[in-house]
Fold this sequence. Notes:
Helix content is 41%, strand content 23%. The protein is α/β, with parallel strands linked by helices. Helix 1 packs across helix 4. The mean pLDDT is 91.
Amino acid sequence: MPRNLDLTALRSFVTVADAGGVTRAAGLLHLTQSAVSMQLKRLEDNLGRPLLDRSGRGVSLTADGEQLLGYARRMMRLNDEVYSRLTDHAYEGEIVLGVPSDVVYPAIPSVLKQFHAEYPRMRVQLISSYTSRLKSMFARGECDITLTTEEEKDAGAETLAELPLVWVGAPNGQAWRTRPLRLAFERNCIFRKGVQKALNAANIQWEMGVDGDSTRTIEASLSADLAVHAVIDGTVQPFLEQIDHGGALPDLAMTCVNMYAANNTGGQAMQDLLSMIRRAFAAL
């Protein structure tokens, strides 16, 4: 059966080791000397080993006490961190995160899950929209962090990844073989003009088979093999597949996933969220 160490007794032990004696440690802990001595005795009884050498003047650690001290310090730090994260008002609040819908998956769900585990009292409000709207919201101070998909980056942006666009369609679909090639894009999709330009340069006739403002409409049309689309490599959703066209369709441009972050907001929680986003996109 697992046995548990008494964290209160461990804190007294660390304080005695740092202070060099029980009397001074008792003052630092705001306890009586006898209370600290009882905690140390209880800790020694629990471990079945002497931790303090009381044979001379003052108090020194035994070999077992020296070994325990390193563990005890780490346990105190972890205890204090957990307590602070769960109770400190500094770890409460909201961070507004804007992400284009085409790069929400697969990175963002894992980021949100990890951040919630580390900052359960912090709320992340996720806004999914197209790049131009998200940049406008960030400029107005309506987002704390904004991701974008664009060919270049503006001042203050950090490029998280530079990846090619790839053609996608229904699994085992045949829409990519039809001419004119039927495209499915939202009107504000930043990839739309670049795809059309690439097709024009390759002398491939095309038409807008699906032209709207709803992501769900685009997804349903692609799943039904009514048209084709383009996404950033590594972000192909599970109900679609990258088209193995063997050169029948042109290569598409490289795209930057950029991140814009507001200065002096969110404190440590904000910095940790930024680090989580960086790691997630570095793994694409």
